[in-house]
Design a protein that fits this description.
The protein has 118 residues and is of the alpha/beta class. It has five helices and five strands, in the order αβαβαβαβαβ. It has two domains: 47 residues, no CATH class; 71 residues, no CATH class. The strands form two sheets. The chain has a three-stranded parallel β-sheet, covered by helices on one side. A two-stranded parallel sheet has the order 1-2. InterPro entries: UDP-Glc/GDP-Man_DH_C, UDP-Glc/GDP-Man_DH_C_sf, UDPglc_DH_euk.
Length: 118
Amino acid sequence: ALTVCDMLLQDGAEVYVYDPKVTKDDALTEFRYHGTTVDESRFHFTKSPEEASDGAHAIVVLTEWDEFKTYKYDQLYTKMMKPAFLFDGRNVLDHAGLEKIGFEVHAIGKSRMSGQSS
């Protein structure tokens, strides 16, 4: 997750993070440990997935927390810019269901197979 956030920040993105098990201070400590400087004006921690996805271009799932499987993604989708992208870095989500909602789904590290989304 650290590497992806760093790459997005280096590309000039505004990064909004929701992680139920990590604090912003912990994340910043981890960045510093790896010698990475973070522009905190573009690195935001939120209190909910709804807050993180509001006005977003994409959702990126980088951890396997069980709660990520049960979110009301249809509600997150309505708050996002369109087209709305979802990158599943752990291949833990229902890609077909997410595509029915309207997401353009990409499974990181998984090839696209007939009848499956990637």
